[in-house]
Amino acid sequence: MTVSDPGSSSLLLRRAGIDTYQQPVVYMHRDCAVCRAEGFAALTRIEVHVGERSLVATLNVVVDDWLPTHEAALSEAAWNRLRPQPGERAKFAHPEPARSAGALRRKVFGGRLDDDDYRTLIEDVVGDRLSELELAAFVTACAGDRLDGVETISLTRAMLEAGERLDWGAGPVLDKHCVGGLPGNRTTPIVVAIVAALGHRIPKTSSRAITSPAGTADTMEVIAPVALDLPTMRRVVEHEGGCIVWGGKVRLSPADDVLIRVERPLDFDSDGQLVASVLSKKLAAGSSHVLIDIPVGATAKVRSDGAADALAQRLQTTADALGLRLRVHRSDGRQPVGVGIGPVLEARDVLQVLRNDPGAPVDLRERALDIAGALLDMVGSEGRQRAKRTLDSGAALAKFMAICAAQGGFREPQLASFRHEVVTDRDGTVAEIDNRRLARVAKLAGAPLSASAGVDCRTRIGDELRRGEPLFTVYAASQGELDYALDYVAAQPGIVALQEPTV
């Protein structure tokens, strides 16, 4: 498109002050000249030009008078991408059709795509040339078993090629990842501290929560800054050997950030997309040796040994095809790990373990040692013994505090002001804990957006409880959020299921 002098075909830009997450959105009045001349309608994809800068955004149409007809408003995502100056105008046009439209349609109707198809699709994803509806169609078309092993490799390679790739030089670069689905399983900060304290490089990029009450980045952010750019991340790793940063800021696999944006409201992902997401980020971060933790349990993300076998095989096959050394570690996914569920509560547990606090959650400590040991065994021997000595001696804590300082400074997490203890109404032995519903309670209480919200669950399978004893405690930043979570608890008996005592 040729951009001409500003006139009736351009609009003055203003900031809408509306958070649309990562999706660029433009707002126009339905009676504005541009909207009428171009035939724009609600949810139309439009190309926006501001000087030499441009992007493709989704149009929302305004029907009352808060927006004048000579102005266009930009969502926060669009405003931050275009960075318009005061009084600057924009021109608008219909974008060229996405090159991947044919491939997307084939996938929706059950077809298989090749390397070139996925490369074109991911280029369009990163270039914002696909609408949210088209992205949702792609995510859905790949769900379940509709993305085979060969396609998973193609998708992973395309996602890797779409972003930057770090090179740390010769020698092993370690990393770990948990596939998720287990509340409170916040081993990463402990593992990074142990591995880095032993002199290994472990540049850990982590995600924010997608369907859980907290991601590693959410938890770490209440302790230290995580939104580091690539140069800062590199300085931290070169100085301290490790880091724990938000992957969305460094954009090592930018297509994954967009797909996560769509998966979040859909509240699901698939094995193929999970593998592509995880391994593209590990490869982009320059990792050479990666350990994947797969918790298995009836209410975890991976619910059976058969499902774990299938996921492990797909991870291994994809890693082998892309030259990554990978080891799968299976763990118990029947119940939460640690006590806290939610960013601040999980951060408290992490610090207790690193500080060798007598009240630290034993299960979180032991699981972190298992994972750190297995990861260290990929490049040596006696990994668990070395990990334990490093944690017990305080060397892991010292390294963690040094990493926090390098990332911008340590801060002590603060618990929420409002809390309510949920108690059992009868005697019994804890037979089952529903991970999914317990995580739902934490989310309804406000986590992860309210970092101090969540659930404290000190109950474990096999515990004997008497009537009136606590099952878990709900934390919230306001009484309204606390009440909202407790209404759900009242409607969901059996989140912690008790077995009647035998006579």
UniProtKB/TrEMBL annotation:
Record's catalysed reaction(s): thymidine + phosphate = 2-deoxy-alpha-D-ribose 1-phosphate + thymine
Q: Which InterPro entries match?
A: Glycosyl_Trfase_fam3, Glycosyl_Trfase_fam3_N_dom, Glycosyl_Trfase_fam3_N_dom_sf, Nuc_phospho_transferase, PYNP-like_C_sf, PYNP_C, Pyrmidine_PPase_CS, Thym_Pase_Put
| Pfam families registered for this protein in UniProt | Glycos_trans_3N (PF02885), Glycos_transf_3 (PF00591), PYNP_C (PF07831)
In the Enzyme Commission scheme, what number(s) does this protein have?
A: 2.4.2.4
Q: Which class of enzymes does this protein belong to?
A: transferase
Question: Biological process GO annotation list?
Answer: pyrimidine nucleobase metabolic process; pyrimidine nucleoside metabolic process
GO molecular function terms listed in the Swiss-Prot or TrEMBL record:
1,4-alpha-oligoglucan phosphorylase activity; thymidine phosphorylase activity
Q: Which GO terms describe its cellular component?
A: cytosol
What are the residue boundaries of the Pyrimidine nucleoside phosphorylase C-terminal domain, all occurrences included?
A: 429-496
Q: Which UniProt keywords apply?
A: Glycosyltransferase, Transferase
What the record says about family reads: Belongs to the thymidine/pyrimidine-nucleoside phosphorylase family. Type 2 subfamily.
Q: Which HAMAP family match?
A: Thymid_phosp_2
State what protein this is by name: Putative thymidine phosphorylase
- What is the organism of origin for this protein? Pseudomarimonas arenosa
